[in-house]
Specification:
A 5-stranded parallel β-sheet has the order 3-2-1-4-5, with helices on both faces. It has helices spanning about 15-30, 45-50, 60-75, 95-105, 120-125, 125-135, and strands at about 5-10, 35-40, 85-90, 110, 140. It is built from 6 helices and 5 strands, in the order E-H-E-H-H-E-H-E-H-H-E. This is Universal stress protein.
Length: about 150
Amino acid sequence: MSDYNKIVVGTDGSKSSLLAVERAAKIAAAFDATLIIGCAYYENQEQASKTLRQDSVTILGDEKAQANLASGKEHAEKFGVTKVETAVRPGTPVQALMSIVNDNKADLLIVGNRGINSLTGRLLGSVPADVARQSDCDVMIVHTVN
């Protein structure tokens, strides 16, 4: 197994996404890696309404995304990670995470499992399943919801 130098984790501010942040922080601390916490947002309600998938929290505007990142960073730092960055991108969670992973040449992407076992997730896809298919780096899907 190769070392992980840059680890990306997504958060939408939900309790389940903070469980993914916690797992990512512990792994980043173990590898002395840089943890990059990412958050997607929609620029307006019209864009948010266009998405067929409703398995993630809809975040309208950059300010809410920045607040989620600040709380995610604070949470991550409780688990011994010393190098924490944040990144925010407009668009769907999948688009945003893929952009953050590619821009940072990440070695590992960590996401929660929300939506993967739902009917909508099975019919339309889910964030964890979609990023696993699209990512060029390792993907860890953390069990955050039953």
